[in-house]
């Protein structure tokens, strides 16, 4: 599984266009509200569904996600098969139960589609992370009453055409849809969200099962 998160979009606009300023203000207000919500969180647990589509490939997986500041993630995939993706602030690990090897790589080298979920950790401001952040009225939300934003992750324009974020009235991000320049899409959908739960650091620490070797790798997921 690859990381994806950018898009190169050139926005041409006329500053004096009627309605331009209010639309931008709406985007700024919503982005700021989302930033405030996630910056105030310490931890988050939710169910996730991940839908990957590419030419000739369609795959749907699901499981449970735990997040804890700073930078800790635990993705437990349960369907259609068990997998574990874990990040402990310094190192990321990927393991499939029953295999004899687990893979690891430094977080700074992580190139994985789950990385966009760092936005749920309130790490940075959305407007600083995305170019051309704007409302996306042409994208129908999955849930009535939600608002949809789109933008291009900075520094990833060569790989991502756009990222779509669905925001609930409670300012929670319920969907992260990543469109790659080659037409591939990865759609993360989140539900049953619980915030600020107590979580032990051990939840984000990988301990290989007996007989399992941990090897260094450039990529840790597939």
Task: Annotate the secondary structure layout.
Layout: H1 20-39, E1 43-54, E2 57-68, E3 72-79, E4 83-88, E5 91-95, E6 101-106, H2 126-129, E7 130-135, E8 147-153, E9 160-167, E10 173-180, E11 185-195, E12 213-216
Parallel strand pairs: 6-12
Antiparallel strand pairs: 1-2, 1-11, 2-3, 3-4, 4-5, 5-6, 7-8, 8-9, 9-10, 10-11
What does this protein look like?
The protein is mainly beta and 222 residues long. The protein has one domain (33-216): Clam (outer membrane lipoprotein receptor (LolB), chain A), CATH 2.50.20. The chain contains 2 helices and 12 strands; from the N terminus they run αββββββαββββββ. It has helices spanning 20-39, 126-129, and strands at 43-54, 57-68, 72-79, 83-88, 91-95, 101-106, 130-135, 147-153, 160-167, 173-180, 185-195, 213-216. A 12-stranded mixed β-sheet has the order 7-8-9-10-11-1-2-3-4-5-6-12. The longest helix has 20 residues, at 20-39. It is globular, with a radius of gyration of 18 Å. The protein starts with 19 loop residues before the first helix and ends in a 6-residue tail after the last strand.
Give a short overview.
This protein is mostly beta strands. The chain is 11% helix and 42% strand.
Which features does this protein show?
12 strands, twelve-stranded mixed sheet, mainly beta, globular, 2 helices, 222 residues, outer membrane lipoprotein receptor (LolB), chain A
CATH topology: outer membrane lipoprotein receptor (LolB), chain A
CATH superfamily: Lipoprotein localisation LolA/LolB/LppX
Strand order of the largest sheet: 7-8-9-10-11-1-2-3-4-5-6-12
- Please tell me the total number of domains: 1
Low-confidence stretches: 1-23
**Shape from CA axes?**
globular
| Mean pLDDT across all amino acids | 84
* CATH class category name: Mainly Beta
- Amino- and carboxy-terminal Cα gap: 4 Å
- The proportion of residues forming helix, as a percent range, comes to 10-25%
Give the ordered list of helices and strands. Answer: HEEEEEEHEEEEEE
**Record field, number of beta strands:** 12
Number of helical elements: 2
Backbone structural class: mainly beta
Please identify, by name, the CATH architecture.
Clam
In percent, how much strand structure appears in the residues? 35-45%
Major pleated sheet: 12 strands, mixed
Radius of gyration: 18 Å
């Amino acid at each position: 599984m690859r990381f994806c998160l950018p898009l190169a979009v050139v926005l041409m606009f006329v500053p004096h266009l009627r309605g331009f300023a209010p639309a931008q203000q709406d985007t700024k207000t919503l982005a700021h509200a989302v930033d405030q919500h996630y910056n105030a969180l310490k931890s988050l647990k939710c169910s996730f569904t991940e839908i990957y589509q590419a030419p000739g490939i369609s795959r749907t997986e699901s499981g449970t996600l735990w997040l804890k500041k700073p930078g800790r993630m635990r993705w437990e995939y349960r369907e259609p098969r068990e997998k574990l993706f874990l990040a402990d602030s310094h190192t990321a690990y990927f393991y499939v139960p029953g295999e004899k090897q687990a893979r690891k790589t430094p977080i700074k080298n992580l190139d994985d589609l789950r990385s966009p979920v760092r936005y749920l950790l309130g790490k940075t401001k959305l407007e600083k992370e995305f170019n051309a952040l704007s409302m996306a009225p042409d994208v129908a939300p999955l849930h009535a009453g939600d608002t949809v934003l789109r933008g291009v992750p900075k520094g990833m324009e060569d790989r991502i055409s756009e990222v779509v974020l669905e925001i609930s009235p409670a300012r929670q991000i319920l969907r992260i849809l990543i469109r790659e320049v080659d037409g591939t899409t990865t759609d993360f959908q989140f539900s049953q969200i619980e915030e600020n739960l107590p979580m032990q650091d051990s939840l984000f620490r990988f301990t290989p099962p007996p007989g399992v070797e941990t090897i260094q790798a450039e990529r840790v997921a597939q």
